[in-house]
Structure prediction request, 207 residues.
Amino acid sequence: MLELVQAGGWLMVPIILCSVVAAAICVERIWTLQASRVAPRTLLAQVWGLVKKDELDPQRLRDIRAGSPLGQIFAAGLVNARRGREIMKEAMEEAADAVMHELERYLTPLGSIASVSPLLGLLGTVVGMIKVFTVLMLEGSGNANVLAGGISQALITTAAGLGVAIPALMFHRYFLRRVDDLVITMEQEASKLVEIMHGERELDPRL
Prediction:
């Protein structure tokens, strides 16, 4: 492995750094974007139970807000529940915007890595081919070792750049879809809370 890195030249350093950053982002997002952490299925029933029992004190509200991103949206709505349906809905929408921004954290850098890595590999290819043609111009085709080194640098950096970019792009698309699914789930749960709080529907006892 070390020999490949050395053969690829100095451009292998930023490519390796990109791979490390991409791997760290993927691990962090996989952990953070779990449905049970973002939008717990039992949260709506728990919140409604507290409301019916008149146990929704400031401490419980802080616990709900700190518990999950969906809890942040619920807490914003509950604080404004007595001001009318529209005000409650607007408060929850504002909180949802902040939550969505948080869910998309690090996805832009991951997408940038997916775009930049193959370009770094291409740059390594160009540098390697320049080295090959320089040797051909100065020494002819007799120096096989130098020629092989230039060709190796050209091929290794390209392969390394693609090796980083392909999984980074796949995970980037996966996380974007994951965020979209979670946002839809939270919107549905928020709408249910608004309607339940204002007597427009009953809570499904199976929840």
User: Anything to note?
Assistant: The two ends are 53 Å apart (CA to CA). The chain has a mean pLDDT of 86. Residues 196 and 202 are 6 Å apart (CA to CA). The first helix runs from residue 2 to 8.
